[in-house]
Design a protein that fits this description.
heterodimer, A: alpha+beta, Arc Repressor Mutant, subunit A, 3 domains, ten-stranded mixed β-sheet, three-stranded antiparallel β-sheet, 40% helix, B: alpha/beta, Amidase signature (AS) enzymes, 2 domains, eleven-stranded mixed β-sheet, 15% strand, binds zinc ion
Chain lengths: 478, 370
């Protein structure tokens, strides 16, 4: 390969605080439009800003997880620009004293392990959201997201392939979501990233013309955008048909291409200066240690606990520790029914397949773990059979039923009564002489047909192992 | 022009007029600017709550220069601001305002009034329409400084709603036994007219005093102007016609809305300051102007040590040029220091003391009045 792609990332992560960065307004997702707005975050005059301590702690946690230096004193700066979603005409950010500096994250790809260096992590506030109403041709503003705390993680241009970028983002998502710093959902916008990309001849030092790509909201989109943009640069270098300019480009996922935004982004002068309204926040070692010692288990630690401590297969452990949500469901369910193997099995096989059918990802499945545990216990203790269990699982997810009450009320208990099962087998055999004829003729698949008929007569509740055993015996006697 | 925007028709010894920059719940608050037309405050400024808790009555909301900006563009308006007139004409016992550029401090003595500019961070600014946040401070127009400080004791003290305050929950203002030595910057005093110079010479006779050199005095007004313009331009950017206040009618797109709203809503001084501040903060000018001014501000703060002297004596006027006079009023806001101004033998005198040393100011005044 003749060319090398050089990339750096700016990742915005919404912090999982209950309130906004400088006021007490809720950060809850999905509230009514402009429900979470007060004079402070609406940019009204006469208000004063107090730094949310929890936001600072989550940023410290992010710093610790990425091996960063934590600044002992942080301040905020005003980044001035006019846009209707920015209530006060400036965004509060940290240009002059970012909370974390010089961190690194280790990633692993097929090419091996590699350190990605971070320039800094800084705290800043999010903006509101413009909503265009086509019907009245007006633009309205929802300020619920205004002043929600974010951290921006800025890497050095250390990436050379899309695999590295994706591995880094997955690692970051795992680190931050397991530490409850953020839920890191790209689809909901709680994790967003901009990419700087340039291409140079392999072996050369000098960087090529750099473009910045925005609007990629999935890992797939990022990989596709990198492939597209690298090729565009290479084509430009080889053919000279297009002259590359330093600019910001927008990824269009439906077309699969990047387009120049022509927003003069690079020409904007943000007039950043220190905010005189906010007193500096001092971060001493004691505070950093307290945050560090309260950090929850990382995905990596959890994987080791699951495989070595609980004896789960690596495959199962890998799936469960890929998502903070699944991990939580696993731990919580295990508290109520201490059988790691069964719990893992039900999460991976049943819960995830229902979620997939509902178009939900690993992070979006929600279940009452106490009910889930009871259900697994019912099946494991052979009170109900697995098929009935699957149906009950759907009902727990859809209607929140209690599995024990439901099984009792609907008499779903497993039928283990051998004489009832034997008489039902005899009924089925005598009602289906043709199938019996086929069986005699050597067709083994009618066995399954008989099982189905027997189960149907018994309302699907018969113990399948007993049915099987007794059916085999009955057929032998014929 | 009347002196009240709203006159609550009360009178007496416990009445306080509010400059239109101090927010009152449910009242229209414009800070003297059309850009805040139709803006109704959703909350009370902390000082308003404290006045009411202290049993004071609010006499009305007074007219003011737009946002209290420095009037460099024209000096034709010689009528004192509403807050000052309310007190000098005996309509209200006190008035509260934000005197960033010295208009009240300068004019109070001429109108037989006194002015108290408290230490930065001792009086809550929650509910004060901001001008330059690192220097804004609510002050008091009064007839008599000892009465004024009594009012201040109701207002001062930590407010959890203001993030830039000293932790003290209250302050005890009164006279002090501390020995008063006046610092007299001769080179500045010499710039005042003869009457003022003589008055100052008489004034200092009553105390022990020492000549001092106010380092960087020539830069005071420049630093003040550069830093305040930068902060004000950023603080004015919230007025965009989108969320509250004035919005121009008839616009074709967002830029047009901004341009028309601000063209019609802001007066000339606001426009000049916004543009000046934006230039000062721009990439090319930030280093030579803003950063340099910040450095000098720090040097100024460090240069007034209050070691061999406790109180600095300054005249209230040294020139016909408002920009030159600004130098006299810059030290207190730039260094966060308390100051008072009053009339002595018919001439305006200003005193500046160290952080939270208001009692020295009161004692000095009382000795001179005795
Ligand atoms: Zn708020």
């Amino acid at each position: 390969m003749k060319y090398e792609t050089v990339m750096g990332l700016e990742v915005h992560v919404e912090l999982a605080t209950k309130s906004k960065l400088f006021c007490a307004c809720s950060t809850e997702f999905g509230s009514d439009i402009n429900e979470n707005v007060c004079p402070v975050c609406a940019g009204m005059p006469g208000t004063s800003l107090m730094v949310n301590k929890k936001a600072v702690e989550l940023a410290i946690a992010a710093g610790l997880l990425t091996n960063s230096e934590i600044s002992p004193r942080i301040t905020f700066d005003k980044k001035n620009y006019f846009y209707p979603d920015l209530p006060s005409g400036y965004q509060l950010t940290q240009l002059y004293s970012p909370i974390c500096k010089n961190g690194w994250v280790e990633i692993e790809t097929d090419a091996g392990k590699k350190k990605i260096n971070l320039v800094q992590i800084h705290l800043e506030e999010d903006a509101g959201k413009l909503i265009h109403d086509d019907w009245t041709d007006t633009t309205l503003i929802d300020f619920n997201r205004a002043a929600v705390p974010l951290i921006e993680i800025v890497t050095r241009p250390d990436f050379r392939s899309a695999e590295e970028v994706v591995a880094f983002l997955e690692k970051l998502r795992s680190l931050l979501s397991f530490a409850d710093v953020s839920d890191c959902k790209m689809q909901e916008g709680s994790m967003r990233c901009d990419l700087n990309l340039s291409v140079r001849e392999k072996g050369t030092e000098k960087l090529g013309t750099r473009t910045e790509i925005k609007n990629m909201n999935s890992l797939k989109a990022i990989a596709a955008a990198i492939a597209y943009e690298s090729q565009r640069h290479i084509d430009a270098l080889e053919t000279g048909d297009e002259v590359l300019i330093q600019e910001t480009r927008r990824w269009d996922d439906s077309i699969g291409a990047t387009f120049s935004m022509r927003d003069k982004e690079d020409a904007t002068d943000y007039r950043v200066f220190p905010n005189p309204d906010i007193m500096p926040v001092f971060i001493d070692d004691e505070w950093i240690d307290a945050v560090g010692s309260n950090l929850p288990e990382t995905a990596q630690d959890k994987f080791i606990r699951l495989t070595q401590g609980l004896g789960l297969p690596e495959y199962d452990s890998e799936i469960i520790t890929r998502s903070k949500n699944l991990s939580n469901i696993f731990d919580e369910t295990l508290k109520h029914f201490n059988n790691p193997k069964e719990v893992a099995n039900w999460i991976i096989v049943e819960l995830l397949s229902i979620a997939k059918g509902d178009n939900k990802g690993e992070d979006d499945v929600r279940i009452d773990c106490r009910k889930f545990a009871k259900l697994i216990e019912l099946v494991d203790g052979r009170t109900i059979n697995r098929n009935v269990g699957k149906k009950i699982l759907s009902l727990i997810l859809e209607e929140g039923i209690d599995p024990v009450e439901y099984a009792e009320k609907n008499k779903l208990g497993m039928i283990n009564d051998t004489s009832l099962i034997t008489s039902t087998i005899q009924e089925v055999l005598s009602e289906n002489p043709k199938a019996l004829e086929e069986y005699r003729g050597g067709s083994k698949k009618v066995h399954g047909f008989f099982v189905g008929q027997i189960m149907r007569k018994l309302g699907g509740k018969a113990n399948p192992q007993i049915v099987n055993k007794l059916l085999v015996e009955a057929l032998k006697e014929i | 022009m009347g002196l009240f925007i709203e006159d609550y028709k009360v009178s007496g010894a416990d009445t306080v007029a509010l400059e239109d920059s101090i927010m009152q719940k449910g009242k229209q608050v414009t800070a003297g600017s059309r850009i805040l037309d139709n803006f109704t405050s959703p909350f009370n400024a902390t000082v308003v709550d404290r006045l009411l808790d202290g049993g004071f009555k609010i006499s009305g909301r007074t007219v003011m220069d737009e946002f209290g900006l420095l009037k460099l563009s024209r000096d034709d308006d010689n009528t004192p601001s509403g807050a000052l007139r309310a007190v000098s004409e005996g309509i209200s016992a006190y008035a509260l305002c934000n005197d960033l550029f010295g208009r009240y401090r300068g004019e109070a003595p001429k109108n037989d009034c006194c002015y108290i500019h408290p230490t930065y961070g001792t009086v809550s600014r929650y509910g004060l329409i901001p001008l330059a946040s690192s220097m804004d401070q609510i002050g008091i127009v009064c007839k008599d400084l000892s009465q004024g400080f009594k009012l201040l004791s109701h207002l001062a003290g930590k407010d959890p709603k203001d993030g830039a305050m000293f932790p003290d929950s209250s302050y005890n203002y009164g006279t002090t036994d501390e020995k008063i030595t006046l610092g007299v910057p001769r080179s500045v005093v010499e710039k005042a007219d003869e009457g003022t110079r003589e008055a100052i010479m008489d004034f200092i006779k009553e105390f022990s005093s020492t000549d001092i050199n106010l380092e960087y005095f020539d830069l005071y007004n420049q630093v003040m102007y550069i830093l305040s313009s930068a902060e004000i331009s950023s603080n004015l950017s919230r007025y965009d016609g989108i969320k509250f206040g004035y919005r121009a009618s008839g616009y074709t797109n967002i830029d047009d809305l901004y341009i028309k709203t601000r063209s019609e809503g802001f007066g000339l001084d606001a426009k000049l300051t916004a543009i000046m501040g934006a230039m000062i903060l721009s990439k090319d000018q930030y280093g030579p102007y803003y950063e340099k001014a910040m450095k000098i501000r720090r040097l100024i703060k460090e240069s007034v040590k209050f070691d061999t002297y406790k109180v600095i004596v300054l005249p209230c006027r040294i020139s016909d040029d408002p920009y030159e006079n600004l130098a006299l009023y810059s030290l207190a806001p730039l260094a966060g220091l308390p100051s008072v101004s009053f009339s002595y033998k018919g001439h305006g005198i200003q005193l500046v003391a160290g952080v939270k040393k208001e009692n020295l100011l009161l004692s000095t005044w009382e000795v001179s009045m005795a």
